[in-house]
Amino acid sequence: MPQLKEIRGDQWFRISVAGAGVASTPAEFPGFVVPFNAKVTSAKWVPESSITANGTNYFTLTLRNRTTGAGAALPASRSYIATNSTALAPEAMTLSGTAADLNVAEGDHLSVEKLVTGTGLAMPAGVVMVALQVR
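RE: above sequence
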């Protein structure tokens, strides 16, 4: 029987994100433990409700690699400073331009974090889909 790390191509993992109705409150949502050494090749955010961007008060949704708990690497992000979202429409998150941020190791924990700028912006529930490729 083949192991997950033997499968070629992108393997998709889902992180459920609860809504964060209080605009000014940052939040973090547990994701999954990476099952093999991999590279993040794509991340998509699917909000349950529409989101209207705000150039001053907004949130940034990030995919965070927690590694041993204190990880600072952000493989992907989506900011609501300028572009709106449509309910239930998958949209690509921006991948980090730093190659090392995209590499994850077996045992790393990937989570999703809401970071707030200004007074923030309410965030609906949704799903972040992460594509990993064995490396």
